[in-house]
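Hello K.,

You asked for the raw outputs rather than the summary table, so here they are, unedited. I folded two proteins back to back in the same session to keep the settings identical. This is the first:
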Amino acid sequence: MEAYRELSLLWSLFHILILFMLLYRSRYSRRKAFLLTGITMIPLIILNLVGVAVYGAVFMGKVFILTCTLPSLLFFWFISEDKKGRFFFTFCLADTVALWIIAVTNVADYYFGGGQCILMLIGRLVLFPLIEWAAVCYLRKPYLELQESVTKGWGIFAGMTALYYILLAVFANYPIIITQRPQEVPAFLLILVLMPMTYAIIFTSLYRQLLLYRRQQSECILQEQKNALEAQLENQQQIRRMKHDMKGHTVTLLGLLAAGKLQEAQEYLNDVSTEMDSLIGQFCSNPYVNAIFVQYSQKFEEIQADFRQDIWIGDEELPYMDLCRILSNGLENAYDELKELDMEEREVSVKMKYSHDYLVIRIKNRCRRGLHVEKGTLPPSSKGGSEHGFGLRTVKESAERLGGDMLCYTEDSNFVLDVMVRVKNM
């Protein structure tokens, strides 16, 4: 009987780790995270099993929070990418679900299995893989996306989950194990029923936030496409006006040439060429990318910002949808930031050039001195204010979709956005 109990406990402890690692985001690579977890957690699990063998399951159940929960909390907090509400909610979620399975199988074995621990072992052998299967198939992908996209509101959920964990742990083991307090079993069963219902409410709220984030992304993409099409339409209208004006220019040039005024004709032709470039906004030969620069050159001109370009691309075929999305979001973030600065500080530059199989884009703009962004992190999203944020997530997603990456940071009162996208062998 004790062998069944210890085997079921070992199975439970390992599957708590598996469930948590399916849902959390490590700041290390997957291989390194698994290695560190094995080095740290396997000895901790063994020590707890030795404690069960020496002191008994009842005693270890009372001190489990101190001997296993808190040490594992500190370890995973150290290797986790998230340090606040998202991490604590995920940790408490995995532990609470595991504790719920342990409590249910324990009560079921006592009342229906005669306390022989066989039903306990079978229940845990079935329920833990079933929960993990459901997490992989239905929860993991949207949950990781939710952690990536939603940065606020996790604290209250983490607090609720932590309270549920403490409630289950205390109610199940203090002052003695719940199966030895039959008068309190109905209340304990109500808690076991209430907990999944509460989690259903929590995940419904989180899923609605995810849907809201996706809708914001779709609206942002549609707005970018609308802006690009409007810029292209404006270019076409300007070109049609220029074609109409060319008749007058041709008449003038013919008159100057007929009069033998070659110098005047050359100067007039140079003026016409300059006017054509200014009207079209010929920043590069690619019409889609050029339309983005036309649009934002006008916006930067309206706020009297110094807009510099160093663009080394031609009219070659490029993944213009994602590329325009990257440029428009990066330039929009720069525009939002420059509006908040003094007139003499409004500077922004764009560089685009090829490096082997990649197109490298750098957007650099002046920013507030209080803004500080470390390399490898994203600033908080606050579209209502002037902070870089939401659009950068779209930039990162577009870059990764093109086999590249994005990096942003601040240095010397400048915000720098570096993007690499693969453009060869696509």
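The second followed immediately with the same parameters:
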Amino acid sequence: MPFDPASAGWEAKRRKDFPDTNGPIWEKLENGARIFGFLADARHANDRGVVHGGMLMTFADHSLGELMLDAVERKLCATIQLNTHFLRAAQVGEFVECRGTITRQTGRMVFMHGFLSVNGANVAAVDGIWTVLRNQAR
């Protein structure tokens, strides 16, 4: 039986932008921290039948970016660097989760680190840098 995120306490965050074309992206609180997830399906697969690395990077960029927005009071921002280390393949049918933390924050720069995992096993490690573009909220 396929994994049902809603029955596991996840809430779909539907939007009308790029992340939703790849989602839905699911979200929940775990020990006070926001975590994100997506259920990998056939449209996320590469020609070898595993989840495409570009999808994992898109998901990481969105998830860590959301955490960054929380840290800067939802001000407009942009990713300026995203490093991804693939550790193992994610399979179609698996639920991929992202957990991230801020490792450093300056006036306009936020440095983040995170992991993508399936059933507690890491599939990717991600580090990124985001910048605040304006003081205007998104």
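The mean pLDDT is 90.

Happy to rerun anything if the numbers look odd on your end.

Regards,
P.
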